[in-house]
Amino acid sequence: MNMLYPKTWASTAVDMATRPAIPSHPRARVTAQGSLARVLQDQQLHAVFQPIVDLRDGGVFAHEALIRGPTGTPLHSPDALLTAAAKEELGYEFEMACIVTQLFAWGKLRQSGRLFLNISAEVMVELVSHRGIRHLLGQLNLSGVLPRHVVLEITEHERVKDMDRLGEVVSALRETGISIALDDFGDGRSSLRLWSQLRPEIVKIDKYFVQSISDNPDKLKTVRALLQIADIFDTSLVAEGIENPQDLRVIRDLGIRYSQGYFFGHPESQPLLEVGGEVTDLLQDGPIAVYPESAQQASSWQISGLNILKAPTVTPQTTNNEIASIFEHEPNLHAVAVLDAGRPVAIINRLLFMNQYAKLYYRDIAGRRSCMSNANTEPRLIEKNYQIDELVGILTSGDQRYLADGFIVMDNGRYLGLGTGDQLVRSVTESRIEAARHANPLTFLPGNIPITQHIERLLRKQTQFVACYADLNTFKPFNDCYGYWRGDAMIRLLASVIKTQCDAQRDFLGHVGGDDFIVLFQSPDWHERCQRIIAEFNAQAVHLFEESARLAGGIEAEDRHGVRRFFPLTTLSIGAVVVPSGQSLHAEDVANQAALAKHDAKLSGDGFFERFIA
């Protein structure tokens, strides 16, 4: 066989100055005619190593071995090498050359710590099936790398043809002390079944879900879900693609154990043994991350959550007398659905029907006739997976029959039951109230639940922070005088002014409701920020008043007791509570103290009051 390398893998020691041989595919004949073939023949690949950092202490946990081609050539980058390997049909040879090169380089450096080696699932199976575990162990021995220091990182999950066989290979490798990792989980090729069946010690989260996680709530939710899966399978996670402190702070606070990316270090020929001071400072003493929040829409509630009435049905052939009998035996039934061959074609309203049926001589004249004469032949049909807000049209429709009749609930076109108008009104109201607890519908800022959760995170981290309660003075008279539209404009102005004075990465802004806002500062210059907020708002709020009110310095309006009197122009008060680190408090304690500070701020002359929690 014309091998790329004349040597074969051996189990005896060799001079470490001599690079170990690269085996060709066990069933292939390879020539050196292609450009990649020449690179492999001349042993022109070289390894580089990127650190994987333990976020608990900032230490370097491991290195991932990566490959580069000849410097200054088109085949220098790994993407170009992979493309050439596919074109020249040297996939197996290229991967094995990478592994041998990386092991040789690592062994020569005599570094401690774990080494991650990329290998496709297909090549892993081929290697073990046709050459056996002994060949791999022999290669590790030649390179001076212990099996327990090696993590085989499985790539190209989509090419797994026989998952059971891959599972057997992984089990055999694990018995030698080698650990298993899944690479780029979540990139569209990865399989949850693969995770479940292989039970890898480590799973790497694809960098798509990590990069910009500090301002993307959907990515945050995805990574949180992966954390739950990792807990089920007792797997450690590595967050790939960290390139800035904002994303690292979120990953750290989520509790992910390991991370990798350019923020820690680039791939280099000489392994990085320590990360920079910026990384260690952030990991040990930095403020907690402000998680990106997404407004929870009321539409997230579905019809299936309603109390669907399992009401009896009738057909177009059902008589009026039979309909009357159904209503007499079902006193709480507001309507019945008319089905023709299982398909809803009409709905009969109880009140309207019984009013007709009670007329003189109606039973004698029309009692045995079809019920369709009393039916609404244009019923509202709703699939059970519809979202509540999609049904608001029923409440606002000019045809009030829909509100009185209710609606027919379907399950994939099959009749399921009935819903009532009053149920819909209650559900829309409740869903919007619940949504407002997560995000205020006026400002779209986080509501009470996210505010409480962030306070609890701050307390758990035992970091110092400042809770500020912002409230408007004489806002009610302004709202009564100018109306809700102008009142909403003032509330939005306040939200905008506070937001511009907050550090989005350190300071959390929430909207309790009405004109009440909470700011949880971690910025050290929080006091100056509060003063700027008060000054900026007071200067801008003046312009929401009519000129006559501005000239008079206020407006006349009724107070809470109905007495008409003069109120000065609306201004802002902020009560601040400094919460030192290490306090054993609950979120409710902090909120109550902030509310008391706000009360004192309203009584102060400058609209600001500061207190400390001892």
Question: How would you portray this structure in words?
Answer:
- With 614 residues, this protein is α/β, with parallel strands linked by helices.
- It has 3 domains: 251 residues, EAL domain (TIM Barrel, Alpha-Beta Barrel), CATH 3.20.20; 131 residues, CBS-domain; 173 residues, Reverse transcriptase/Diguanylate cyclase domain (Alpha-Beta Plaits, 2-Layer Sandwich).
- The protein has 22 helices and 21 strands.
- The strands form 5 sheets. The chain has an 8-stranded mixed beta barrel with strand order 1-2-3-4-5-6-7-8, surrounded by 4 helices.
- Helix 22 links the parallel strand 20 and strand 21.
- Helix 3 runs parallel beside helix 5, helix 4 packs across helix 5 and helix 19 runs antiparallel to helix 20.
- It is flat.
- Please write the CATH class name of the largest domain: Alpha Beta
Q: What count of structural domains? A: 3
Q: What percent of residues are in strands? A: 15-25%
User: What is the 3D form?
Assistant: flat
Q: Ranges with pLDDT <50 over ≥5 residues? A: 1-18, 26-32
Q: What is the CATH homologous superfamily assignment of the largest domain? A: EAL domain
In CATH, the architecture of the largest domain is: Alpha-Beta Barrel
Provide key terms for this protein.
single chain; 614 residues; alpha/beta; TIM Barrel; CBS-domain; Alpha-Beta Plaits; 3 domains; 8-stranded mixed barrel; 5-stranded mixed beta sheet; 21 strands; 40% helix; flat; disordered N terminus
